Structure to design on (216 residues):
């Protein structure tokens, strides 16, 4: 449903009063295209707008000037039904807050996602096994560590059909081993489905062969 995400002179509200020459960014106030099938890493210090950008693209916030387009269509023209369809079939994400339900188990959180690719229980369990969470399948999310929650949120993202995967600081609390496994699982998914990948980082990068690395 989405072949390209275009950013045109995008400026978040917190930068509107800041002179352009005072902002060193390859994303803000630029023309930029994220293409399906390609991978992008956006690096930035804390407070530079990584989560803000992901929220704009996912339709959770609209406090910006400039334009975001999905295949030429301004996302400000999208209605609730459009967004519901896009989040079900075209966009899948891992946010810093992860948006998991604490009183549900890890498996129940996964099952809440539209399983458009028809993943069965064995496939889900295999994902948990690869990320060292085999014994956490039925654990309440509130009992998991931050890093374990990150891995559950990652599995949930993979279980949904998507043209673009958005990942906001996905390995901030993971060791190198789990980060490498996560990267390999992403490679397999992208090679199979041709999804686009947009990852943000505050200094600890998801290890991946990105098509482009940008400074936010």
């Amino acid at each position: 449903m989405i072949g390209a995400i275009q950013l045109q002179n995008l400026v978040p509200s917190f930068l509107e009063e800041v002179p352009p020459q005072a902002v060193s960014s390859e994303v803000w106030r630029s023309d930029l295209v994220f293409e399906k099938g390609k991978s992008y890493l956006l690096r930035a210090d804390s407070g530079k707008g990584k989560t803000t950008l992901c929220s704009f693209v996912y339709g959770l916030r609209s406090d910006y000037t400039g334009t975001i387009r999905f295949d030429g269509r301004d996302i400000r023209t999208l209605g609730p039904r459009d967004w519901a369809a896009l989040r079900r079939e075209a966009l899948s994400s891992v946010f810093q807050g992860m948006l998991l339900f604490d009183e549900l188990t890890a498996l129940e959180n996964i099952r809440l996602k539209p399983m458009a690719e028809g993943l069965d229980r064995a496939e889900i369990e295999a994902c948990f096994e690869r990320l060292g969470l085999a014994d956490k399948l039925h654990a309440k999310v509130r009992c998991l560590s931050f890093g374990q929650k990150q891995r559950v949120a990652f599995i949930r993202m993979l279980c949904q059909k998507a043209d673009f995967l958005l990942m906001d600081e996905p390995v901030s609390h993971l060791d190198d081993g789990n980060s490498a496994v996560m990267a390999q699982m992403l490679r397999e998914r992208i090679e199979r489905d041709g999804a686009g990948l947009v990852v943000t980082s505050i200094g600890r990068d998801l290890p991946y062969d990105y098509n482009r690395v940008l400074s936010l």
Remarks:
- Residues 4-215 form a domain with the Rossmann fold fold (CATH 3.40.50.300).
- The chain has a mean pLDDT of 91.
- The chain has six helices and nine strands.
- The first helix runs from residue 50 to 57.
